[in-house]
Amino acid sequence: MRITGCRALTTIHDWGRPVGDANGVFRDGVVEVPLILVDTDEGITGVGLGPHTELSTIFAALEGEDPRATISLYDRMLRRAFKSGHTGKVFGTIGALDSALWDIKAKAAGQPLWRLLGGRDRNVTAYASGLDIALSDDELAAVYESYAERGVRSAKLKGGLDVERDLARLTLVRDVLAAANPGCRPGLMLDANECWTGKQAVRHIAALEREVDLIWVEEPLRRWDANGMAAVGRGVRASIASGENLTGLEQFGPLLAAGALDVVQTAAVWGVTHFLRVAAFAHAHDLPVSPIGTTPMGLLHAATAVPNHMASELQDLVPPLGLTVDVSIEDGQFVLGDDPGLGLSVDEAAISQLPERSVTASPAGPHVRPSNAGRRLDNEPPR
Known about the structure:
Blueprint: E1 3-14, E2 19-21, E3 24-26, E4 30-40, E5 46-49, H1 55-59, H2 70-80, H3 89-109, H4 113-116, E6 123-129, H5 137-148, E7 154-158, H6 163-180, E8 187-191, H7 198-209, E9 216-218, H8 226-235, E10 239-242, H9 253-257, E11 263-267, H10 272-284, E12 289-292, H11 297-303, E13 312-314, E14 323-325, E15 327-330, E16 333-336, E17 344-346, H12 348-352
Parallel strand pairs: 6-7, 6-13, 7-8, 8-9, 9-10, 10-11, 11-12
Antiparallel strand pairs: 1-4, 2-3, 4-5, 6-16, 14-17, 15-16
Helix pairs in contact: 2-3, 5-6, 6-7, 7-8
């Protein structure tokens, strides 16, 4: 089997409500979702979600190769970006291609990826994550009721701008989950998306912890601030979670060496091989790993095969336009299906009918860091 070509597509994910975090919000709830299709001479096509940055350059490392050599081809792609570096969106392109290769490999074997990777159980523990910072109380309750109806017992809220508002929202969601799951003690997490200084983080978290228990606080400081996150971790009861925006295994080294992380994360967009390597690195430090992403199919499959998986992020209950996923949500878990590969099907005709738009060019949204982030006075809005 040989790789013969690749195609880049872009679909949309319409949440039907505003989505965002402390850095900004997509008010119309419509987010672009880039994906890559990798074709082979045996008619098997692999699907990977992620950006197209430097696609032709990176794909040159794969063309004509046997796609089943996933690990070797991943390193071949990293070497292709050696001089300019493989960080940022280029790492996302590598991740999308990597996921597509794993998809092909499992399809060629006639197995779902979770089975090919050696997973024993198709169930993966989920926690709810609604990208919900812009929602009213009524909207927030309705969103988390929809998760609770599927047995989800833990939730991660976006916050970090107003401690009193965060407390009210955490309490509301805790009560929603408790009402739907009598007898359970809901788990709560808060995601600050790198919006605090160290002192702000400790004050904000400590104030919340006087009223609620938090499993973890996510990205309290800049993603690379190993010493700062270690200091925050010593000053609060909650665990510190981070890593979703680190683009390369080597970036985790200083954080783990400093004892900065209690929960190690990686994003679906960076691919299956990266996740497997990060999970092994975290396991060597006796730390749990937790995948992040809107449609994290590859990482859900991979999570079944690592010993230190904790829980995976469940964002929207509906996939992006033109995508079908072979997974269900039952009793608070992702339940992976038996479709060979990642369980991702693409309706190219439906995607081709989308009008051209450029969400990423918008000046507002969580993809743009506010100029006063990390320098705000308490309760000062981002700008």
